[in-house]
Specification:
Shape: elongated
Largest sheet: 2 strands, antiparallel
Number of domains: 1
Structural class: mainly alpha
Strand content: under 5%
Order of helices and strands: EEHHHHH
Number of strands: 2
Distance between the termini: 79 Å
């Protein structure tokens, strides 16, 4: 795909064609086909490196760079969400077990009545 930091035109051609089709074509089928291709590309393992190379290539259109930047933004957001979920899962399980270990104290218990009696009363 990329050799010495230069993006190979063969790897870039279908992406460039799809981005241009999305910008200029009025045919709904062509646009849908281009959108499907770009969507599939964004899910590949090569998308990250290809998009970085696109952003580093100076002679590409603003639309192409916008597509690359948007793809990278989506990747970062997805990986961030997955990381946060991975970090929260053990915490959720731990806190759940802590809360279920407490027994429910009935509201009519003498401890609760005693606790309520210690609260200051309102005088208006």
């Amino acid at each position: 795909m990329a050799a010495n930091g230069v993006l190979a035109q063969e790897a870039l051609a279908p992406i460039l064609t799809a981005v241009n089709t999305m910008q200029s074509s009025t045919d709904k089928e062509q646009k849908q086909s281009a959108a499907d291709y770009l969507d599939q590309f964004q899910k590949t393992s090569e998308a990250w490196n290809t998009c970085i190379a696109i952003l580093q290539t100076s002679n590409l259109s603003a639309q192409m760079k916008m597509f690359a930047a948007t793809t990278l933004k989506g990747e970062v957001a997805m990986k961030r969400t997955r990381f946060i979920e991975a970090q929260l899962t053990p915490s959720k399980a731990k806190s759940s077990s802590i809360f279920t270990s407490f027994r429910r104290i009935p509201s009519h218990s003498s401890e609760t009545r005693y606790s309520r009696s210690l609260l200051p009363t309102r005088t208006e």
